[in-house]
Amino acid sequence: MAEELALTIKDFKSENEVRWCPGCGDHAILNSIQKAMVALGIQHKDYAVISGIGCSSRFPYYMSTYGFHTIHGRAAAVASGVKCANPNLCVWEITGDGDALAIGGNHFIHLIRRNIDINVILFNNKIYGLTKGQYSPTSDRGFVTKTSPYGTVEDPFVPGQLVLGARGKFFARSVDNNIKMSQEIFEAAARHKGTSVVEVLQNCMIYNNGIHAAITDPKMKKEHQLMLKHGEPMIFGDNEDKGLVLECGHLKVVKIGEDGVTRDDILVHDVTEPNGFVHQLLINMALPDFPVAMGVIRAVEATSYDEAMVAQIEEVKETSKIKSVDDLLMSGNTWVVE
Amino acid sequence: MSKETKVIELEEVAIRFSGDSGDGMQLTGTLFSDASALIGNDLSTFPDYPSEIRAPQGTVGGVSGFQVQFGTRRVTTPGDYAHVLVAMNPAAVKANAPFMRPGGTIIYDQDSFTEKNFQKAKFTTDQPFEELKLDDYFKIPVPITTLTREALKDFGLDNKSILRSKNMFALGLVSWMFNRPMDYMERFIQNKFKKKPAVVEANLKVLRSGWNYGMNMQHMTPRYIVHAASIEHGVYRNINGNLATAWGLLAAAEKANLEIFLGSYPITPATEVLQALAARKDLGVKTFQAEDEIAGISTTIGAAFAGDLAVTSTSGPGLALKSEALGLSVMAELPLVLVNVQRGGPSTGLPTKTEQSDLLQALYGRNGESPVVVLAASTPSDCFNYAFHAAKIALERMVPVILMTDGFLGNGSEPWKIPKMADMPEITPRIAKNAETYKPYARDEETLAREWAFPGMDGFQHRIGGLEKDLMGNVSHDPENHQKMVEIRAEKVRRVVDMVPELEVCGEQEGDLLVVGWGGTFGHLESAVREMRSLDHKVSLAHFNYINPMPANVHEVFSRFKKIVVCELNMGQFAAYLRDKEPDFKYEQFNKVKGLPFTVHELCEKFEQLLEE
């Protein structure tokens, strides 16, 4: 029976032609999410994909699930309403660096603070693509675009820092073209109860081509990416001989076999640690001194908003004498006029 | 009872309780009103308070007032002018002198009439009554502070707690004067402070001291008798407009067999709608105190997409912030109710004062061709019915509906005959039934409403959004399609007219002057028209609750009168709307933007003048 019911990736594709630019990282992310949805085994009717505005936000039109392409910045709030209306749904928010971190910044942090069980997939290409090339809140200082012809004079957000600052319980990072890693991460995000934020480093072929190349280049991948796995030491490098240690409150790259360093000295990744100190250090790691952390960085269990909301309603329903609107209207001070 | 007591029989009395915003005047007024309703008076209340929570003590700006009018007849307004003013300090007298009936009674705390307080209230002499030209008013000085202190001397309370009980003394005294039942107030105090027996005892002691003081001093205090009103039999309660709005929405959810979701951000004077619904977890209400107004409506849109009766509540500035998202609900054609409790504007304006100046914003304040249904409640208690009908229209026609109330309705209260749910109309949401044939934007031929299918329903999976779309909900940039869809969305709203009752005329069906109003001014307009008719003037009232679409018979009604005057608490927004929609008539205007309701007096003056012209 179960096999007959099993969905395939075709079940998640819509009849709509996918209109992202050829070579855009979004194609691969769409593929990874559809694969994750198949693997999750949740009924097709229970998926709801909510997006804001931007290239990435066209996403729902390319899915065969329920989908809602909303307005700029508000996907987090709309998705929150969807989840509260029906907590049984598996709700995904598709957003970009402009949508989530500029116009929607307030909703983004409050969604995370409330810990509503929504999977936020943040496509970070460090540029405004749909409006044809203006700098975004994740663009590096000095970045030259149409709206910053002399370079920006502002610092970017690091998405993971915002997640931690908003008391986030789940944060992961992936790369658009690594479908296997992305699929695993999306599955983990969906299984996590509460708000899960996945930052996907995404390449915009047209307006910001190669912005993540130093990290994602297959040749440099092992040197420049640290693939985090819960319970395993933080080791990277072509020869898997580099690792991280904690020294005086700072991370430090060490080489196994040099200066008496052994595998046992390397930090072991713990996604469940409520204290976000090490997670914060991992999120902040940047080239050239450090590899960039990939995978699930933080996954701390906590009660989700939707669980608490349902529990509270059930609890009050049980104890209250008011069971219907008629009961309510007749409660308190009333009097009879004969 | 002593023969010296002067007993005055009245058909209706207006009392204004007034003091520092920390003096507990709102509570005093509310308790007095509830007790009046319990003994069968009809009544109407009007809280009038500053936006500062605790403005500087003793200043005119910090005065908080609560007016109630109760009577033996139908009472539709809180009264233009008060017969009796209870003033806890000189500033209260100064702030309320303009709202006193000539020759009225002023009960005041003589202990607070000190030089320091005269200065704070910016009196230039130590003769405040003379300065305000209130010499010929009947004044009852009562040492309220001293007597409260005396009553509580054995209670071991600190000075602050003692002073906080002064309002109970005033309440006891006024209750004696108007023969209000004390048991109701006593029960209230016992309930409110049930965890603090000492506070209960202290308040009861002061309350009774006030009553006893009236009885003992009856040579100087008049006693009033206001007989019970003859009103329709049934079970009644007092209700204010915000509570009635919240409960009307609950009633709609129950009738529609849907869960209810409210996404909202606190804003004066609409916050109580959110609070009232947050209290109703027992009825399964999901309230979401959002991070801002935009999230308030955006979460609501999400809930509408996912199958709840979805509601958001706000006031003018919040409506402005919600504009873009409201446009999304127009485009996506989702059922949604937006309650706008209007206040004085523009900008932050007069947050605690009433006004009707959001009408054009509600009708037109969005980008693009973006029509919505607009309703307006007209009394505190009929907020229940209009909230119910707003939800009914939204759910049956798949449109966003704006319900306009205002600060006067929201905070004002009146007795309300409690309806039975069995007597309320049915609500049939347009939930899709056939997955095989479902198309997201296929429409009912008559109403043009689309069908509603939401996540979790098997076989109806579809995508919608803010981009222009085709029948399937898919993006369409086709010029012909856009023209067609714009027209369909407008026509769908127009066709709601078949759910709109005909415009009724209060008074004769034809005449010299038709008074036209909408929303919260009903009580004052109705009183004024009644008064004009009692003077044999041929004046009638046509009051609008359905603004968009308007009732079908507007043209026919208007054509039966020689003159039309549109009265509203703005600079003429409804008049402008009528000129656009019903251009065959000449519209006179009477407008007021003082943050206050009309007075019956000024309305009658205007009508007289128009009749003479």
TrEMBL record, chain A:
The keyword Oxidoreductase applies. SUPFAM superfamilies: Thiamin diphosphate-binding fold (THDP-binding). GO terms for biological process: cellular respiration; small molecule metabolic process. Signal peptide: none annotated. CDD domains: TPP_OGFOR. It comes from the Bacteria. Keywords: Oxidoreductase. One of its GO terms (molecular function) is thiamine pyrophosphate binding. InterPro entries: 2-oxoacid:Fd_oxidoreductase, THDP-binding, TPP_enzyme_TPP-bd. Residues 53-200 form the Thiamine pyrophosphate enzyme TPP-binding domain. Pfam families: TPP_enzyme_C. This is 2-oxoglutarate ferredoxin oxidoreductase subunit beta. It comes from Prolixibacter bellariivorans.
From TrEMBL, chain B:
GO terms for biological process: response to oxidative stress. The keyword Oxidoreductase applies. InterPro entries: 2-oxoacid/accept_OxRdtase_asu, Pyruvate:ferred/Flavod_OxRd, Pyrv/ketoisovalerate_OxRed_cat, Pyrv_Fd/Flavodoxin_OxRdtase_N, Pyrv_flavodox_OxRed_cen, THDP-binding, Transketo_C/PFOR_II. One of its GO terms (molecular function) is oxidoreductase activity, acting on the aldehyde or oxo group of donors. Residues 261-469 form the Pyruvate flavodoxin/ferredoxin oxidoreductase pyrimidine binding domain. Pfam families: POR, POR_N. This is MFS transporter. The lineage of its organism: Bacteria, Pseudomonadati, Bacteroidota, Bacteroidia, Marinilabiliales.
